[in-house]
Every structure is written in C-alpha cells, then in structure tokens.
Amino acid sequence: MTLAETARALFATEFGTEPEGCWCAPGRVNLIGEHVDYAGGLCLPMAIPQITVVAVRRRSDHLLRVRSSGFDGVDLDLRDRHVDGWAAYVAGVIWTLDPPGLTGADIAVASDVPVGAGLSSSAALETSVAVALADLCGLPLGDDGRDRLAAACVRAENDYAGAPTGGLDQRIALHARPGHALLLDFADGSSEHIPFDAEARGLTVLVVDTGTGHELADGQYGQRRREVEDATRFLGVESLRDASSADLIDDPVLRRRARHVIDEIARVQKAAELLRAGRIRDLGPLLDASHRSLRDDFEVSCLELDTAVDAAVAAGALGARMVGGGFGGSAIALCEDDRVDSVRKAVADAAVQRDLPAPTFLRATASGGARRC
C-alpha cells in the first residue's frame, strides 16, 4: 500500500467519507550550509524520497480534525487560535495562510519521514498541508505562489509551533526538483537549481539516523540564533553575510558562532562551484570541515553524531557531517557505492562500542517537491 493509499484509508476510517484528494511533500537533507539561513547565508539542500501525505476534505463549521497513525488525534475550533503539540504545524498553516473560503477541514496524515531525525518532518507536514489548501482554494502554485506558501509555513512554525526556524526546510520542500540540489540565498531570496545526480557518479548520500531525536522548540536552537544576532550587532553589519571575519568580537562564544556562519557560507559557495563543474566527489573535505565547525564553533553536535561521522570517515566515506539543527538527529556520509556497506557496518559497530542507540540508515536521492499525489 502506498502512503497515499494509507492516508486515504485512514481518512475513510476516521471520518467515514472520502477526501477531496491527497497531497505530499518531502523531507530533506541539507548537503551543506547549516545554521546560516537566518543569518542571510547560503544553503544547499535537496529533497529526499521520504514524504508526508495528507488526505484532506474541507468543512464549513470552523472545526479542524487531524488524525495520524503515529500521534493522538486532535479536534479544535479554528476560531480559537491556540493549539499544543504536533497539530500546531497543521493549524498554524491554516491560520497564517488564511485560504479563501476555508473555515474548517478534516485531515489524515501518513508519513515515512523519520520524526526527530533532523530530516525536516515538520516542514514536510506544513508544506503538504499548504499545497493541499492552495490547490483546493484556488491559490497560485507557481514559483511565486510557492514562495508565499513557504513564508506562511515559516510563520506557522515560528508563531504557533514555537520553533524559530529560518525557512530553508520549507523552501526546499516546495521548490525541489528531481536530480537537483537547490542553492538558496537568504540575503536576496533567490535560488538556483544545481544538478546533483550522485547515483550517476557511482556515489551514495547515506543518511545515518542516530536515534537521538531532537526538538527545535526546546530552546537551544533559539539560543544559537540569538547568539548569531548578537554577533551581527557587535560587528555592525546587516547580516553575517556582510562580514569577512569574526576576529574583532571580544566575546569568545560569539566569536566562534560568527566564525562558523562566515566560514560555512564560504563552504557553500565552494560546494556550488564544485557541483556546477560536476565534481561531486570533491565535496568530501567541505563536509568534514562543516562538521568540525558545527561541533567546535557552533557547538550543536553531540556524542552520537560525532561517533557516526568519525566512523564513516574512518571506513572510507569521502566526507561526512551532521545535518539539521543539531543536538541529535542525523548525519550524512558521501560514499562510493562499493563502500556503503562497510560504512554502515563501521557506524553501527561504533555505536555498539559506545553503548549508543542503534543507528538506522537510508539512501538519499535528490527528489521532487510538494505536489498532488
């Protein structure tokens, strides 16, 4: 049974009728460019094959009913602008998007995007709902329309789910193309689709879910964002995109935070140049440097992520790094196809040796964005 069929079946069971349709959106991995979206930086994410599907039918009574096999169901009156838990990602999109003519909805959710793994399950849910409502309510779904949907989803996550994310996840979920990464410029809002076909080069982007879930709304992500804002003000620039060095910052913590952002933006620029030239294998050292910076300067890694990254590189991965907001979640390793099994074994063995949770693995291929399915 496909995820769309699963969502339809859940909808019929829970609501006793059929949905008007099903829509889906992908999770993502960010190849490089972590914790720089909210600093006016550059990021290079790609969508993955794992998706969230929503089956939706409109209502006319201000009631929102949301069901998922993985979470408790939620019923709420949309006129009451308050909701806790996972349904905030759904209701928040409705409130911020305010689609014409919509006063309520029944929604059933099915997903194979791992939750808490740093693969943006929240944005996959938000953007699948946003595309569904736009399609049902006649909102535009071209590039400009999708930009507006992304902005609404970011506001929903910031204002209603309480996670101060910067917009990377929502934009890649809405704009992704198969076989491409998406270079996102958060200074001017521009983007560029860059070919990324690792399989054709005999390469695999291996995702390692360390089994240590993270939660961006728990305060640590917000603290890092505030530190970046403090460093920006100290340097007297509009954003750290305009800074060339963090050396003038007296505070050692703020200096490290700014150094990560400045250096990470430069790494994204170099990575984009390599991909335009078809030199995917040469990304490895940039991935390694990104992880060291996130570990040492930004301090968002953890033992589980460091163990996975170190083991992958020692087993022959071309490069590896943590992905997502940090404090748990997943890492990626760029591997030659014939090294994937040995890298997987090395990472799993390293976790056992350190008495860490057993990691799980998936292969990430550059996939398409949110759509009707």
Automatic annotation (TrEMBL):
Alphabetical UniProt keywords: ATP-binding, Carbohydrate metabolism, Galactose metabolism, Kinase, Magnesium, Metal-binding, Nucleotide-binding, Transferase
Residue ranges annotated for the GHMP kinase C-terminal domain, each copy included? 271-350
Q: Which residues form the GHMP kinase N-terminal domain?
A: 89-175
Q: What is this protein called?
A: Galactokinase
User: Which NCBIfam families is this protein grouped with?
Assistant: gal_kin (TIGR00131)
Against InterPro entries, the record matches this protein to: Galactokinase, Galactokinase_CS, GalKase_N, GHMP_kinase_C_dom, GHMP_kinase_C_sf, GHMP_kinase_N_dom, GHMP_knse_ATP-bd_CS, Mevalonate/galactokinase
Q: Which family does it belong to?
A: Belongs to the GHMP kinase family. GalK subfamily.
Organism this protein belongs to: Rhodococcus pyridinivorans
Signal peptide from the UniProt entry: none
Enumerate the GO terms in the molecular function aspect.
ATP binding; galactokinase activity; metal ion binding
**Annotated Gene Ontology cellular component terms:** cytosol
Pfam families, alphabetized:
GalKase_gal_bdg (PF10509), GHMP_kinases_C (PF08544), GHMP_kinases_N (PF00288)
Q: Does the keyword Nucleotide-binding apply?
A: yes
Q: Name one GO biological process term.
A: galactose metabolic process
EC number, as in UniProt: 2.7.1.6
Gene name for this UniProt entry? galK
Q: Which domain of life is it from?
A: Bacteria
Q: Where are the transmembrane segments?
A: none
Q: Does the keyword Flavoprotein apply?
A: no
Q: Where is the Galactokinase N-terminal domain?
A: 10-58
